[in-house]
Amino acid sequence: MQLKRISILLFAVTMTATVHSQIFDPVTWDFSYEKKGENQYEAIITATIEKGSHIYSMDIPEGGPIPTSFSFDTTAYYTLNGAPREAVQPEEVMDEAFGFKIKSFSDKAQFRQSVTGTVPAFKVTGTVTYMACNNVTCSPPKDVEFEISIGGPEVKQAADPGKDITPVRQKKGLLGFFLISLIAGFAGILTPCVFPMIPMTVAFFSGGAGNRRKSVIKALVFGLSIILIYSSLGVIVSLTSAGAGFANALSTHWIPNIIFFALFLVFAISFFGAFEIILPNKWVAGADSRVDRGGMIAAFFLGITTVIVSFSCTGPIIGALLVEAAGGDVLRPTVGMFGFGLAFALPFTLFALFPSIMSKLPKSGGWLNSIKIVLGFIMLAFSMKFLTTIDSVYSLGLISRDIFLVIWIVLAALLGLYLMGKIKFAHDSELTHTGTFRLFLIIAVFAFMIWLVTGLFGAPLKGLSSLLPPQSTSWSYSNPAVPETGSVEPSVFQITSKSVQCQEPKYGDLFKMPLGLGGYYEFEQGLACAREQGKPALIDFKGHACANCKVMEARVWSDPEVLRRLRDNFVIISLYADDRTQLPESEWVTSVVDGKIKKTIGKINEDLEITRYKTNALPLYVITDHEGNPLNTPMPTNLDVEEYIKWLDEGVAAFRISRASE
Prior knowledge:
- With about 650 residues, the protein is of the alpha+beta class.
- Helices cover about 45% and strands about 15% of the residues.
- Strand 14 and strand 15 form a beta hairpin.
- Helix 6 packs antiparallel against helix 12 (about 385-395), helix 9 (about 310-325) packs antiparallel against helix 10 (about 330-355) and helix 11 (about 365-380) packs antiparallel against helix 13 (about 400-420).
- The longest helix has 29 residues, at about 210-240.
């Protein structure tokens, strides 16, 4: 019988090597898990088998073919409960080659292994060995290694090679952008080429002998047409900007950032009155001719005419919103334009429905042009964001925090002087007196300017942390006064007060740690230091253009208790996922996710995050052991300091448990 078994295996190997030099592998494996209770899980191993083929059961008599078997790696992070079991009933048929009945699976097979976790997040690794056959040939016994991440964060799994990875984003980002778009829409109403149109538009609906019902319907059609036009523009941008690669390139590459800076500059100059951005006259004439025909179609074309005529004032606002939206979530352009259109259409529609409230509107005047000028200063200030992104991503070191602040201080001073009437632009009216609202606005602008000045002398300016260059680029920067470990009550989770670095950090000439912390910028070097110092590693996946990364450092990491734990209890590994520094060919990495060669620091770090932690969210904080395995659930953006401290302590506690069991 043993001789017969060997003969079958030799036949399988020979057939596999000779049939048109093809590889016979009719089985696709899928690995997942199911939570069964507190710290109780089942690792699920599923085989999908091509039609006409089969694999063998785990229960095969002596002298039969190679059974399907499993080998699980043993670690301190989980324990196996019993042996693997077959979750699908196998078929039992007579096998003429072996002379007895043999259990096998066709179409699909599933196996399960019960495990108990000792830490909140861990990986089950091992190997499945199997043999596949059909009526013509058999494969030689094959080993497939697997890794199942259990208890980790609810993040997007790595995609198949060649597919885009969609970045994980917080839903509240869309809501916040929608609210900003609403405000922008209302601001568009208060511009010189839009506000005077309200009475004329209302006159269209209130004129004529038609009944009230038709007037209401026409007003609603008019409002909905405006919303539809702006939303359609957003949909077009959404459809053409889908994909994480596009969003990342748009937000970090120097070419789009230069273009966006130039656009904001042009928009600001337009608002200052140097020229107007207008659409072709024939568009206006064409839409206006349809209005003269009357009826519901006229209401629709009046909406189009309103959008086109108002473009000289709303165009820069729309452009700024779309620039901001295109580098983010694929839905942002659609959501933003819907919000803008809704706010823009609402006043027109309400006044058309209730003409009597028109009498309460303020009269048109110089104040409308003042709103344009204020918007121009705001756009000029925010244009700096695109230049600082280029400077940071490409490590140019040209725009320091102080230079950025000085530019903003000058702009704030000029805006204050303008509001006081000391500076005048084209189309400005004579300022005969200062109204109450203008006075409070002047006070707010100069107060903001003084607040910016404090940043030149070391103030953290946390409210602007997402826009400002790192504090370490300021001339006034010095390491924050972090209390020594002995000067505060020691934490029960404290590992050691040793905070010296093991060796000079690789890429230390390119990157700087925030808040005077020490750390590393290369994964393996950081883990090696953590191993040497006997500490867990805290991996910080971040980006130069990541606003939330800067906010987390300014508002959470700067807390004295958080800062003490970061300094004393961890080896920090900061990995920039958007850095474009080209590496020598010897350091290039071929991705197992998409098969592409990663040649820059950012691409390698992004691929590492996707491969190991199944996401490309920024920021992402991962507390790991010395092999890079998560010790607890990774943490995305979380501005709750107490929660973050609890998470840090939880990671240290899990590290101590794992060390004790070694």
